[in-house]
Amino acid sequence: MGFATIFGLFILPALIIIVSLGLFILFKEEGE
Amino acid sequence: MEMAVVSFVLYLLIIVTIGILSAKFSSSGLAEFFLAGRKLKQFVVALSAVVSGRSAWLLVGVTGMAFTIGAPAVWAVTGYISAEVFMFIFLGKRLRRYTAMMDNLTLPDFFESRFKDKSNVLRILSVSIIIVFMISYVASQFEAGGKAFSTSFGVSETSGILVTAVIVLIYTILGGFLAVSLTDMIQAFFMIFALLILPIVAVVNAGGWGEVLAILQNFNPKFLNPFAYSVGGIVGFLGIGLGSPGNPHILVRYMSIDDPKALRKSCLIGTVWNVLMAWGAVFIGLVGRAFYLKPEALPGGDPENLFPYLASTQLNPFLLGIVVASILAAIMSTADSQLLVASSGITRDIYQKIFAKEKTIPPRKLVLISRLVVLCLVIAALVFGALAKEYVFWLVLFAWGGLGASFGPTLLLSLFWKRTSKAGVIAGFVSGTAITIIWNQIEALNNFIYHLVPAFFFSLFLTILVSLFTSAPAQAEAELESIKAKYRQKSKKP
């Protein structure tokens, strides 16, 4: 299984979840 | 087969019961019928927003696409999931705040308030776009329902279409937005379960992931490479995500949350759900290919039959019933939300705000009219579906793209750019719709890139250009600032 396959099938979905987790933490104190 | 019917009937009973139980609450007024009184919690909004946007396209379209083209199908899901992450956090929150302050129930309501439009031009234009695209969208969902019923239970497609339409009609008419959102939540569980259990069972039955990989590598070494696809194709797939900010049946979900700040929690829940469902669908397509190297092995040689067919060969009858229920769940969770949006366009935007502007109509009567409009829309969608026999996948993408290109750029600019003008928004509406229809008619253009990408950017460009040459509403800046200030004060209160 090449890197492209691992990226597309496993890393990409994990990245999207990490970004949403990052935004979740980043906007914790946002009161506006 | 009996066990499959049992699990399926169980699912139907749950959603119809929710419809009946929500009826009393939803009958009290239009805000309750169309927006659940803006009282929904973050978990319900998260799942409802996600599954309303995921129609039969995900379960039968994406699985079939991954079966046909392989790993590049991941780009078709990456675009919309990424777009929706930002919608939950930024667009959703702002839209919820503004619409609550302006007492807007619908998207046309929002455009009229935002641009102080007394002429009804924005309202009529936006409702027309919603009705045209929503009817074709709902029709495609009913068609998909018929297909799912006939593949799984051996009934005729016409009977399947009618059963799908009647079930959606019952709980949507009775329970309105509350029932639609609560059933969406139940449907989200059915969908995620089916999309995860099938690839796991199928991989185990195939002899493990290593075995599946070996078969696919042998079949076509490029099948598992997501980059082995044309650049135009990948951009077009990612561009599907441009549709999310313009589809009113997703946007109203954000408007219905009780606390706009809770949308960040909804974002996390919704994204995890979105990702698991999408990659489940992609894996079903890939694993399915290892089972059926030739598409002719599928019923009718149609890759869109892969999901129910693979389930019927790999799962026990009870789980098969859940898979069939999940397809119907995807279809119903989308169609119900779209019916309500289209009904609100006619009842709230056309009848209440234009024809009966001077009259005071009792809230219960307005709800009754809304229910009758839902019934008429179901009939219209059934007639349209019988006339337009196209592939479910493309009919969905046509409506998704048309709404995305017309409302996406105009809504984003209206919420984030104070300089946006009414004329600019009209230009955006017209160009977004026109490019979608024209692009779709020309095969060479359609093969080059998915129509939403050029239509979205052309609409965005025209809205900006026309806005720069015309004047924005005088009080726009002050009004938007005052709404922000009010919320700051509110959030400071203990």
Brief digest:
By secondary structure, chain A is mainly α. Chain A has one helix at residues 3-26. Chain A contains one helix and no strands.
Describe this structure in words.
The complex is a heterodimer of chains A (32) and B (494). Chain A is mostly helical. Chain A is built from one helix and no strands. Chain A is rod-shaped, with a radius of gyration of 14 Å. The model of chain A has no long low-confidence stretch (mean pLDDT 84). By secondary structure, chain B is mainly alpha-helical. Chain B has one domain (2-400): Up-down Bundle (Sodium/glucose cotransporter), CATH 1.20.1730. Chain B has helices at 2-26, 30-35, 42-53, 56-69, 74-101, 107-114, 121-153, 157-206, 209-219, 231-239, 248-255, 263-291, 306-314, 317-355, 363-387, 392-416, 422-441, 443-448, 452-469, 476-492. Chain B is globular. Chain B starts with a helix and ends with a helix. Classes of the chains: A mainly alpha (32), B mainly alpha (494). Chain A binds chain B through residues 1-2, 4-5, 7-9, 12-13, 16-17, 19-21, 23-24, 27-28, 30-32, and chain B through 71, 74, 78, 81-82, 85, 88-89, 213, 224-228, 261, 264-265, 267-268, 271-272, 275, 278-279, 282-283, 484, 487-488, 491-492.
Helix content of chain B: over 70%
Class of secondary structure makeup of chain A = mainly alpha
Beta-strand percentage range of chain A: under 5%
Structural class of chain B: mainly alpha
What spatial form of chain B do the alpha-carbon principal axes imply? Answer: globular
> Taking all residues together, what is the mean pLDDT of chain B?
91
| Shape field of chain A | rod-shaped
Q: Could you tell me the strand content of chain B as a percent range?
A: under 5%
Give the SSE layout.
The complex is a heterodimer of chains A (32) and B (494).
Chain A lengths: L2 H24 L6
Chain B lengths: L1 H25 L3 H6 L6 H12 L2 H14 L4 H28 L5 H8 L6 H33 L3 H50 L2 H11 L11 H9 L8 H8 L7 H29 L14 H9 L2 H39 L7 H25 L4 H25 L5 H20 L1 H6 L3 H18 L6 H17 L2
